[in-house]
Amino acid sequence: MYRDPEAASPGAPTRDVLLVSAIITVSLSVTIVLCGLCHWCQRKLGKRYKNSLETVGTPDSGRGRSEKKAIKLPAGGKAVNTAPVPGQTPHDESDRRTEPRSSVSDLVNSLTSEMLMLSPGSEEDEAHEGCSRENLGRIQFSVGYNFQESTLTVKVMKAQELPAKDFSGTSDPFVKIYLLPDKKHKLETKVKRKNLNPHWNETFLFEGFPYEKVVQRVLYLQVLDYDRFSRNDPIGEVSIPLNKVDLTQMQTFWKDLKPCSDGSGSRGELLLSLCYNPSANSIIVNIIKARNLKAMDIGGTSDPYVKVWLMYKDKRVEKKKTVTKKRNLNPIFNESFAFDIPTEKLRETTIIITVMDKDKLSRNDVIGKIYLSWKSGPGEVKHWKDMIARPRQPVAQWHQLKA
């Protein structure tokens, strides 16, 4: 039986249905291809993202591009501004402007910014790390040698951001100059009263020094806080071997101060109690005992006693002191001293406790100090506040002696 091919059978697909099927097939093929391309894009994106992070970590990127850094040469001591290294591709904003902008680039930049904020080397972490280090300030000085006159010239110019050593919140700084290893012959600047950014501009001459000996010496500068009533407090020090300096002309340096070597190490601890009586307007200071005191004598011991000064607005009001304990690094004193202090004057009052080493043949040495007031160090402030919070009760606390 003949059938018309044009005639639609009940179960046969129509031409429109076949056309739609073909379109769907083509669409699925395109989708598969696009998915493969997307996978390739993701891999390329990951590679670009990785490269972006690596670029961020290089010295040429970020803020390093906008800052000139200094390096110290092994000989000559000059500070040189570094330029881009030949052979390296500089990274700047013009390079970024030549890249085509796209959603992928935006995503990479966004992710890179987020990773920078969370990375261990971020500016926030660097700031916290910097805060953990003690800042002793810095000093500016110049040094040079006159070959015709065999004279070494040292000029001490100024210092910046020195720490406050006095309980009044300031310092009285001056500088000692040595040519190590000789410590017997020293030169000193003038004292700058109540100044944390002093300017000295003083010139010192070491005359009659052959150049062969000069290059064997180390220039040593020590910044101290002048104290009229006791030993001067060291602030910081700087040392520079002269064989590392081009002495043919005056060289100027900025150096960060480091902790003084003679102030390093433990000086011991002191146990004392404070008792405040508001009705009697008095504070009783009980010097109980000390432990692990620093040996100040040649024999490896000390002869300690304790001085207690009552200070009001940077003025000495009254002094008390204990008996001397012979050859004892762990002395027991158990001596009490009463000071009259009106309540309204407490805020401007400081009690300075100094542990001394008695010396018959020379000046007594300072082993260590403690400043007690509402604005001293954290441990001292805690003791002071506990004393006020618990009136008429002795409040005892151990304190670390400081230089």
From TrEMBL:
Bilayer topology: Single-pass membrane protein
Superkingdom, taxonomy of origin: Eukaryota
Pfam family, one: C2
Domain C2, residue spans: 135-255, 266-399
Protein source organism: Peromyscus maniculatus bairdii
GO molecular function: calcium ion binding; calcium-dependent phospholipid binding; calmodulin binding; clathrin binding; phosphatidylserine binding; SNARE binding
Cofactor: Ca(2+)
Region of interest (Disordered), residue spans: 73-106
Segments passing through the bilayer: 20-41
Biased composition (Basic and acidic residues): 90-100
GO cellular component, one term: lysosomal membrane
GO BP, sorted A to Z: calcium ion regulated lysosome exocytosis; calcium ion-regulated exocytosis of neurotransmitter; plasma membrane repair; positive regulation of transport; regulation of calcium ion-dependent exocytosis; regulation of endocytosis; regulation of insulin secretion; vesicle fusion
Keywords: Calcium, Calmodulin-binding, Cell membrane, Cell projection, Cytoplasmic vesicle, Exocytosis, Lipoprotein, Lysosome, Membrane, Metal-binding, Palmitate, Peroxisome, Phosphoprotein, Repeat, Synapse, Transmembrane, Transmembrane helix
Subunit structure: Homodimer. Can also form heterodimers with SYT6, SYT9 and SYT10. Interacts with calmodulin (CALM1, CALM2 or CALM3). Interacts with CD63; required for localization to lysosomes. Interacts with APP.
Record protein name field: Synaptotagmin-7
